[in-house]
Structure of 5'(3')-deoxyribonucleotidase:
Amino acid sequence: MKKTIAIDMDGVLADIETHFIDWYERDYGVKVNREDMLGVLEPDGFPDKTAVKRFVYTPGFFRTIPVMPGAVEAVKKLMETYEVYVVSAAMEFPQCLSEKQEWLQEHFPFISWRNIVFCGDKSIIGTDYMIDDHCKNLDFCRGKAIMFTAAHNVYQNHHQRVDNWNDVLAFLTAEEVPA
Amino acid sequence: MKKTIAIDMDGVLADIETHFIDWYERDYGVKVNREDMLGVLEPDGFPDKTAVKRFVYTPGFFRTIPVMPGAVEAVKKLMETYEVYVVSAAMEFPQCLSEKQEWLQEHFPFISWRNIVFCGDKSIIGTDYMIDDHCKNLDFCRGKAIMFTAAHNVYQNHHQRVDNWNDVLAFLTAEEVPA
């Protein structure tokens, strides 16, 4: 049986950081540097700390997030070896369920509805691996945790880290090598 | 730490069987007997075998399913002892996501968004117990499977069976007794 991987959407498949920066620039005329967002929660990375919360409740926000570079090709590659599940903590923003579904349908149409999970707390997800950008999800995961680098998590180092989708492929390919 | 239970919606929290019968009678003027639905897949329990599929794709169907008798009180009781998750295979009918969410908000407002999971395949759900009416979910569950009786499953006897919510409480209370 194939090993299973749970892959997060925001910050992993979807480049939400770039989307926050773009929307902030559009609305405030200020282009925030990624360097100013390092190690702080996403809302605190912007001069107006109420902006992020407003964005995530704006219709269309989740539907229009750009795909994380390399994600489509990497997920296709992983699906050859692993049973891949998209596991998104979508319940926190209930209005985004249909947007997230449409987004996946557009960018990852090769992922079956059988392999999509919208949840709250991820602690009951029992996959062999979990790729996520948040400790709140990785700290309680049952399989091997893989932290996908985001500005907000750069100082958290208690999980295996990957910086991009090439890193994910390299790490998981190494995992497959028999001991 | 509390033990975890995954509870299905359709056929367990939501009385979808009664809803099918009611909608069929409304549209066809024929009240189907539950006895005629025993041991057959839901669509095959009705004279017009296309009706069920049409119902589940009709806006409002999932929003208006009656609550399974005793479910609200039993879930409240279980939450005293267990970490209760609602786990629904909602991805099969994507249009129903928001209806299911609103239904839960109306009938089970005491269940946090953190404890709601809309998924496809349930095999990655790692709870200690799973209460469901379908073998396709129970056969691959990682914890103890509990089959909630429905007309379609009456001849499947390889899982612990409960006939109603009183049975669920009785079974899980017995489980708590120290050996």
